Amino acid sequence: MGQYDFKKDLKEGHDAEEEVLVILKKKYPKAHRIEGYFKDFDIYVPEVDKKLEVKHDWAVRNTGNYFIETEFNKKEDNGDITPVSCGVDATLADYWVIVDHEVIIVIEIDTLRHILQDYRIVTLPPKKTSFGGKGYLVRKDNLIHNPYVLVIDKSDKEAVIEIWMN
Questions:
Q1: Count of domains in the chain?
Q2: What is the pTM of this model?
Q3: pLDDT tens profile 43-81
Q4: Sign of the alpha-carbon dihedral angle for 120, 112, 45, 24
Q5: pLDDT tens-digit map of 110-154
Q6: Three-state DSSP class for residue 89
Q7: Is residue 27, in this structure, part of any structural domain at all?
Q8: Is 164 a member of any domain?
Q9: Which has the closest alpha carbon to 128: 38, 40, 58?
Q10: Which residues contact 22 (CB under 8 A, 6 or more apart)?
Q11: Contact, 13 vs 54, CB < 8 A?
């Protein structure tokens, strides 16, 4: 598996956000990424006042599962490890977006949280996520066949992301 590489993960995350922005801007030209460290959400769409959290998941190609994070372990200055709420448990986004090698999945955050009630939280070991973390493993097939999920084939150059208004 190898050691966790924060810089590589950060670059892949920014690349995924850019992929989503290219599609979003077809309908919402003012959509933009939030620059710098900002954990509440990644992309803001002012035309509809909506926020998106974008996650990339390349491991799904091998596992068939998306990992939807809820907690990570932070190493304090004194060496203690402290769990910190994050991901689906902490986001202020209206939509959760997952980017993998084949598709982009867009789902309202409340719908995702409802779906996750049927799953149990798993713990990932420190070697893969720095100091470890927790989250849900969700079968890709379960999300892409859900009627409340927008699935975009990345090879579709005409694809558009339409933000639902509620």
A1: 1
A2: 0.89
A3: 999 999 999 999 999 999 999 999 999 998 888 999 898
A4: positive
A5: 999 999 999 999 998 876 557 889 999 999 999 999 999 999 999
A6: helix
A7: yes
A8: no
A9: 58
A10: none
A11: yes
